Amino acid sequence: MTVHAWLKAPLTHDPVRRHTYPDDVYFREMAAFLDGWEPERTDRALLASTFVMFKPDAVVGRRVEPALAFLAGHGFEPLGALTVRVDARVCRELWRYQINAAPLAVIRAVDMILESGPPCVFVALRDTRGPRRTGTSAAERLAELKGSSKNRAVNGGSLRGALGCELMCLNFAHAPDDPADLIREVGVLLPGRREQALSLLAADLSPRGAAETGAVARALYAAHPAHPLTRPAPPSEAPGDPMALLERVEELADGGDGRPLWDRIVIAAELVEGLPSEGRPLIGPPPGRHFTRPRAAPLAGPPAATTADRRRRTSAPRPHSSRTPGGQALMPDAEVELHGPAHGEGPPRRYGPVARVAVLSDVHANIPAFDAVLAEPDVARADFVVLCGDLTWGPEPQETYERILGLGERALCLRGNADRYAAGIGTAALAADTPRQAWIAERHSPEAIAFLDRLPFGLVVEIEGLGPVHFCHGSPRSDHELVTPGTPSERFAELSAPIDARVLVTGHSHLQFDRAVAGLRSVNPGSVGLPYHTGEPGTAYWALLGPDVSLRASRYDVEDAIARARAAVDPDAERYTDTLVNAPDPEKIVAEAERLIFVN
Length: 600
What we know:
Layout: H1 15-20, H2 25-34, H3 39-46, E1 49-54, H4 56-60, H5 64-73, E2 76-84, H6 88-94, H7 96-99, H8 104-114, E3 120-127, H9 130-134, H10 138-146, H11 159-163, E4 173-174, H12 179-189, H13 194-202, H14 207-223, H15 242-254, H16 261-272, H17 307-313, E5 349-354, E6 357-360, H18 367-374, H19 377-381, E7 384-387, H20 397-406, E8 411-413, H21 417-426, H22 435-442, H23 446-453, E9 458-463, E10 467-472, H24 489-495, E11 503-505, E12 512-517, E13 520-525, E14 539-545, E15 549-555, H25 558-567, H26 573-581, H27 586-596
Parallel strand pairs: 5-9, 6-7, 7-8, 10-11, 11-13
Antiparallel strand pairs: 1-3, 1-4, 2-3, 6-14, 9-10, 12-13, 14-15
Helix pairs in contact: 2-12, 3-13, 8-15, 8-16, 15-16, 21-22, 21-23, 25-26
């Protein structure tokens, strides 16, 4: 078999892994080793089995045996265990495609944990419910069950939730996201013992596996004193400067203050808690059609930028000139500040292939409208729900965020211009210019602001019948560029030049349409929460993609939406509610949009 054969479904459903792992030496070596295995044995090791790696904090925190009991209750039985030393070098190799985006202070705190003394414990697990029963591989099912180290609000029912994970760095356990990750990570962790590790994964299930695993845990408990993993004194404020914070963690690692090692580790973990990523991970979680619980929010993939990045590229709201005084249209230049991908974001993530995608845009925190669309059977059955931006800018921001969390990994969210402002004000990268701007930002929890701050600019989904479809909020070059049914082919050809898809889906204009232009297909699902239309008040617009484009509309109780906006004491409630019942005329919106082109 070629290395590419080991990257087909069901070993991975992720096009990013399929593109990256053929050049990964660990994956290539493991694929060559597995070529000699019988197919039935390979399936047992890679599809019916997976592993969990307990870290040193699980040993000193006495979480290994409770974790094994939790996993057994969910159908994962131990086949055996190996101890493995994970030093700073192995750490960087194991998480090579994610650690590139981590703040240096976080990496150093993780080094302290991994090099604290106890080895890690590699436990091979058999999924007794099996891929045929669950419809997914053991690795994918355990990755879902594991829970998040960052977004702990969604950890109910997860392994980390059951173990009391309270800090991002002290998260007790690691597990591969899919079988392709399993292949690579065995090569990283156990290069000299790969046959032993894979044989454990392929072994028949017997009571001996559980007994041996328990014995390994108890031996480590005996060798390493327990620690409550709680801080011995009230926490001090973390330095705001990243380099000062790294220096502080380095001081803790050096141990000059005389505190016990695990006290210093807990302090370091608290100091780095909540730090945003400093770029975009090279590889994120696989596409989520096999998952029902969200991991590490946010739902739309990897972090897009730090607050500092946003300060560098985002200014306060201001008018945007897109025409000369004589009326001639300008293409983006020095007079127009573009708001494209965040610093370090990289190319759009790719998902699929999938059969059906529901597309919702411009929800604007209209909960009755959002609920009505989410209740549609075709939305409930869709492989993905793509949310094309401007999600929470409206009367009920936090409730909208929570609805999105409830969609789990089916939700793929994009940054709109309103999301950019809410995140900027919420992180103090922007100053609020109006009472409503301040009001909206204050009605987001810190987790919701962090979610908005990490939204990607664009993404691509391969959809049956349509091929690759490019999604963004405004246009592929700025989140505040308007694309309408009247956009001239010349401008459309220029704004769509960066994409490699035949279908471009945008939002922002609040107009629903599907048209052919400049050799491509331009689609806007319309607005869920604040549409510009000639239909009845109380209509929410969306689209279903695959195998063709189907423009949809759902009815909702507009009086309920009006009452909720007023009850929320939205400073802009009257204008907002007036738009719900007296929507602007689409023809006038198109004319004005094509006159302005760029609108925040």
